[in-house]
Write a structure and sequence with these properties.
alpha/beta, five-stranded parallel sheet, three-stranded parallel sheet, 46% helix, 14% strand
Length: 279
């Protein structure tokens, strides 16, 4: 056999060595992985079952529609502008429903004849449907707080799933339809708030919070902080879910009593919005 007859095979072997060179192969795999993460991962960050989750509906739920005045639809609200003499304030609770804390909060609110606004996480609601039904039965208002309580940026499909699947579970469990939305952590630029605004939700933020996530804070500190931030039309953020909020439960009766001493009355967020419209 002549030498030149071997040349094609030698060339193929050389090209194969180049193609399968470990460094080149590692580089190709790295680039492919990064592209996959950037292009595919954001669409799969939600539960694999989203956005086509099949919920088991509550038995013949009565429909409750928590609407807002037209001027607040698709708007962000942090506080309602009321005259000084109109001392109304809204208590709100995030991250529930929770097995113990929510029940304790409900008991305190009932003892004081107060209606509040609860912003629910879909996964928490999925775990505690009976507690959720009790919240609604007690006459409180419900808002949407996304499915997972994620902070990072989401693509449009994932953001939509976070809001819509929570809305669906709220309705299937309690019969509630709500126009209220609160973004987790108050994050306005990760996709979910923008989606909610496009869907004409009122994005209900807050003007007062007791500092629950400062570990060194005390029950007395909670009370003092809320009182110092109180003003007509204020929206107070507290938490009944998402962890240990026993300090909130302890502070709540004192917050209510002290605010009442200052002449405040307690309303829900929709009631607060309607008060501004009627001014």
């Amino acid at each position: 056999m002549r030498t030149r007859d071997l040349q094609p095979n030698c060339d193929m072997e050389n090209r194969s060595e180049v193609f399968w060179h470990p460094k080149l192969l590692a580089a190709v795999m790295t680039v492919t992985g990064l592209l996959g993460t950037c292009l595919l991962l954001p669409t799969r960050l939600a539960d694999p079952q989203l956005p086509n989750y099949e919920y088991k509906a509550a038995a013949s739920p009565a429909t409750h529609v928590f609407s807002v005045p037209a001027r607040f639809q698709g708007k962000i609200v942090r506080q309602v502008q009321l005259p000084p003499k109109e001392k109304a304030i809204a208590l709100t609770f995030d991250d529930g429903p929770w097995p113990t804390t929510t029940v304790q909060v409900l008991k305190i609110l009932k003892q004081n004849n107060i209606k509040a606004t609860f912003f629910w996480i879909g996964k928490s609601l999925q775990a505690q449907p009976d507690v959720a039904r009790q919240v609604v039965a007690d006459g409180h208002v419900i808002g949407n707080h996304t499915w997972h309580h994620w902070y990072f940026r989401m693509n449009p499909a994932t953001a939509a799933a976070e809001v819509e699947n929570t809305a669906k579970l709220i309705y299937d469990t309690t019969g509630v339809k709500t126009a209220l939305f609160r973004p987790p952590g108050g994050f306005m630029h990760n996709g979910v708030a923008a989606y909610a605004l496009r869907k004409n939700y009122t994005v209900a933020m807050w003007s007062s919070e007791p500092g629950e996530f400062r570990p060194s804070n005390t029950v007395a500190g909670y009370v003092t902080t809320v009182l110092s931030q109180a003003q007509p039309g204020a929206i107070v953020l507290m938490h009944d879910g998402g962890g240990n909020h026993s300090k909130t439960v302890q502070a709540l009766p004192q917050i209510i009593a002290r605010l009442r001493q200052q002449g405040y009355r307690f309303v829900t967020v929709p009631e607060l919005l309607k008060m501004q419209v009627s001014q």
